[in-house]
Write a structure and sequence with these properties.
Organism: Neogobius melanostomus
Largest sheet: 7 strands, mixed
CATH architecture of the largest domain: Sandwich
Keywords: Glycoprotein, Membrane, Signal
CATH superfamily of the largest domain: Immunoglobulins
Number of strands: 20
Protein name: Natural killer cell receptor 2B4 immunoglobulin domain-containing protein
Distance between the termini: 39 Å
Subcellular location: Membrane
CATH class of the largest domain: Mainly Beta
Shape: rod-shaped
Strand order of the largest sheet: 4-5-13-12-7-8-9
Number of domains: 2
Radius of gyration: 25 Å
Number of helices: 1
Structural class: mainly beta
């Protein structure tokens, strides 16, 4: 058969959108690709469509082509030009015989798992490619609040909290003078790894993120510590979004 010269690296297409909520909260879906020698990991947001494609033409002849989920459930089966959809996927997938691509519609958390493109011949089965698909819900909005402020002519001490619906809140205390800011004590381990609270040059930032979305709330440091407008804190005491 002509399917032995295959390419393990496939493509995933995902239409991303950017939405703005008010002045501070922003949701930005991401599509991250992590490739291995024989499989790829995909992160996709719930309620979106996932497209898997086989980039090279495959001559099937009398062989059977399958898209499988978790190595046991057939999604579709193609034999001699006839497509057989699994009952579980009949109304959820579009399959294109001309290029063997598959679109899984409106993915949910339960769709996380291993997707395999496979050709079954008389003598052996050949795996064309494997995807490790991980479906994540978008993160919830966050609220940045100022818990306390102590101002003097030369310094400013303040404590802020970052809160979200589904994760434990975190708080940080900072001390600023007319040139720099620093955390009042070493930052404790965050109880929620997806939640971060830090300073930029001019802002206090609460960031909530995962692999597929990002929400944040910000406040200007000048509003919390009203030194001269030209004299603001310059030391950043946190990080931005982690990519795993």
């Amino acid at each position: 058969s002509g399917f032995y010269n295959y390419y393990p690296k496939l493509q995933l297409s995902l239409s991303n959108k950017v939405k703005t909520f008010g002045n501070n909260n922003v949701e930005i879906p991401f599509n991250f690709i992590f490739s291995g020698s024989s499989s790829q990991t995909r992160f996709i947001q719930t309620n979106r469509d996932l497209q898997l494609t086989v980039p090279e033409e495959v001559q099937l002849g009398r062989d059977i082509f399958n898209w499988r989920f978790n190595d046991r459930n057939n999604i579709i089966r193609l034999l001699r030009g006839e497509v057989d959809h699994s009952d579980d996927y009949k109304n959820r997938v579009d399959f294109f015989k001309q290029n063997l691509s598959l679109i899984l519609k409106n993915v949910q958390l339960s769709d996380s798992g291993i997707y395999t493109a496979e050709v079954s011949g008389k003598r052996e089965d050949v795996i064309l490619s494997t995807y490790d698909v991980r479906v994540e819900a978008p993160v919830s909005p966050v609220l940045l609040s100022v818990d306390s402020v102590f101002n003097s002519p030369e310094s400013c001490n303040f404590t802020v909290s970052c809160t979200t619906e589904l994760s434990p809140s975190i708080s940080r205390s900072f001390t600023c003078d007319r040139r720099t800011c620093e955390e009042a004590s070493p930052a404790p381990s965050d109880p929620a790894p997806s939640l971060h609270l830090y300073l930029s040059d001019v802002s206090i930032i609460c960031n909530h993120s995962n692999h597929v979305s990002w929400r944040k709330d910000t406040k200007e440091k000048q509003q919390v510590c009203p030194f001269g407008a030209e004299e603001v804190c310059t030391q950043e005491t946190g990080g931005t979004k982690d990519i795993y």
